[in-house]
Design brief:
Two copies of one chain form a homodimer. Chain A folds into two domains: 262 residues, Rossmann fold (3-Layer(aba) Sandwich), CATH 3.40.50; 97 residues, Orthogonal Bundle (Rna Polymerase Sigma Factor, Chain: A). Chain A is 34% helix and 15% strand. Chain A contains ten helices and 14 strands. In chain A, α9 links the parallel β13 and β14. Chain A is globular. At the A-B interface, α3, α4, α5, α6 and α7 of A face α3, α4, α5, α6 and α7 of B.
Chain lengths: 386, 386
């Protein structure tokens, strides 16, 4: 594999910050939060004209820690460290990059683990249904706070891509470029089915306790692990799994049978167990529901062209050939709607065997497309300033 | 949709029969059953030369009740009633059709719900690991009992197709035709992953009780339902689910969010609940393990051509365009091996939106291919007799 021209360096040690929004915040579902808190990180410096900000929107299980480390020696850097850093595609020498944890999350922003306004304990399962639109509006409040009127780019993969798309529709004057990666304009029945099974695994775990597990000092580990295992298989491709695991045996004699464990079994169980220790079950339910319900064309007579009409951004769509969760054709749906709405849109289809997970991986052509596009974005900002 | 030329009639009321094998039966895993019982049904009449017998092998959740009804007024006929009957593709006016429940099953054959030989209760989780090869050998004992030396055809879909393939290898002189539908020569890592998640859902349900649920008067309903939901999504295609369910709402307001239920959610939950009341959890674990471990080429240096060398049957492979569990290419693998082994083989690829489940459906072209092939098989038998 040829290395990307955007291999780059690391942002180093970063410290999360908090933004507190003290006014009531009305959610799409009709509920009102009396306020909210967002945990976020920034990388790079905001320029004097505040034109070089880039917003990173996270996917289902993501959070604010997108790049760098929290302390020297951290084993793992942020989840998108391959893309964010000096000289990397999202170049922190050029851009002021903001990453946050969304409302409803479990990494420090207001969510099911936060105390209820009346101090009667934590929200738990009573946290209101959140939507992509709610996230976008709360992110806009964070941008206000940080002095960012207009983003050079809003970028996200998967559920994060839906936020980037929604940003361009809801704040047409505040987004110069929307970079929508491995996304879809709405979920299919199959997508919803997999989410439903994951939620069902969680909520039918007797340790879920109707969502009040924390008060009881328990955790629906089994259900969360299953949810992750199901999700994980849909993030990988059949061919990618074949190359990585095939039918390799981890232990046991395939003739004897009973105690045989294939490598792929062991891998999935490990993924499930690790996740169940790190993620909140109520948040998982909220996030998958936001995915299921996202449908920007619904208020426009199911016409995506009408829905995107108000957008003014330039668009970069990126999709991956082996992604069967949000296949290339789902990005094409967005592309077609944007083209019919006479928007500037590019679509890069990246050959990859890594399925939906590709958007998190350092695939050279992917990094090159993203980096080259953003290099141009930066040049345009600079040109406008002179 | 044009109707098939093989729409045909029904076999009417059928009564299951039992075959008891009283001698020790050594399984591939090394364990020995002191004997076994098979529950089976037959449709049509064995001819005087015993050359018109057809064996039906069932898939993961199948059983012996393949056609007809058990009493007048039964709501549902046998699971393959669309294909078996007078004038149907597997024509009971021409063939003597045998369908059975495999060893390890939960519909009446020796399995986890059977008493242990030492009368210390039922087998439960201690039932030995069974394999496709074990099933084939036990089916051969049933054939002996019924006076069938040579089958006109052994037919099966999915896991049943693997049995048809194995019959042709293990009893080359007893199978004139092997009809292998929607099958694969072995599972991929992705196939194993889905089976693993289903098993994990069952065995990690606290009501599974290590497999001793029946003694405790409980049942792992939650785990079994999840296993079925996972399996079910893999039996359908994304496009088929899209056409059938799309994003139709069953109840609730998609803007409000919290109580929204999509049709596909409701459907899947119903499928899961129904299944959990009808199927035995230990059997589900056994059957999926047999699927995972099936790999006829393993004893031939992973060379499928060498594995099929001993077969003498003619082969009909049938696969379906939207089947992503066992895609067309998996049948092609078998076809290539058979062709390189200079076997007579035909492969029909049927256009269908119904995914893996297609093999159970009355798709006209599918019924026509199967019926026309078997009409020729019958003509050859008749010609040989004269």
């Amino acid at each position: 594999m040829t290395e990307s021209a955007f291999a780059g360096g690391n942002v180093g040690v970063v410290t999360p910050a908090r933004f507190t929004h003290l006014e009531p915040f009305v959610l799409k579902c009709g509920a009102t939060l009396p306020g909210f808190e967002l945990i976020y990180e920034t990388y790079g410096e905001l320029n004097s004209t505040a034109t070089n900000a880039v917003l990173i929107c996270h996917a289902l299980s993501g959070h604010h820690h997108a790049a760098g480390v929290h302390q020297e020696g951290d084993e793992k850097p942020g989840w998108w460290n391959t893309c964010i850093g000096p000289g990397k595609p999202i170049d922190t020498n050029r851009f002021f990059v903001i990453a946050l944890n969304n409302i409803g999350g479990c990494h420090g922003s207001t969510g099911p683990c936060s105390p209820k306004p009346d101090d009667s304990g934590m929200y738990g399962p009573d946290f209101p249904v959140v939507s992509v639109e709610d996230w976008v509006h709360s992110q806009a409040r964070l941008a206000d706070h940080l002095g960012v009127r207009t983003f050079a780019a809003v970028i996200g993969g998967s559920l994060g891509g839906m936020q980037a798309l929604q940003w361009a529709m809801d704040y047409p004057d505040r987004v110069r470029n929307a970079i929508v990666i491995a996304a879809a304009p709405k979920l299919t029945a199959q997508n919803i089915a997999f989410n439903e099974i994951a939620r069902h695994a969680i909520t039918s775990d007797h340790q879920f306790a109707g969502g009040h597990y924390r008060e009881s000092g328990i955790n629906p580990d089994v259900g969360l692990a299953l949810a992750r295992m199901i999700g994980h298989v849909t993030y990988l491709s059949a061919s990618g799994m074949g190359k990585r695991f095939g039918r390799q045996i981890k232990s046991g004699d395939p003739r004897a049978g009973a105690d045989v464990e294939f490598q792929v079994q062991s891998y999935l169980r490990y993924q499930g167990q690790t996740f169940s220790r790190q993620f909140d079950a109520n948040t998982y339910v909220l996030m998958t529901r936001a995915l299921d319900l996202y449908d920007p064309a619904a208020d426009f007579g199911d016409d995506l062209v009408a829905a995107v009409a108000r957008a003014k951004a330039d668009f970069l769509l990126i999709s991956f050939t082996s992604d069967w969760r949000f296949p290339v054709e789902r990005s094409e749906e967005i592309v077609h709607a944007l083209l019919r709405g006479r928007k500037n849109v590019s679509h890069a289809i990246i050959d990859s065997e890594h399925g939906h997970d590709s958007f998190l991986l350092p695939l050279p052509r992917y990094l090159d497309v993203l980096g080259t596009y953003l290099r141009r974005v930066h040049a345009e900002i600079e040109a406008d300033a002179t």
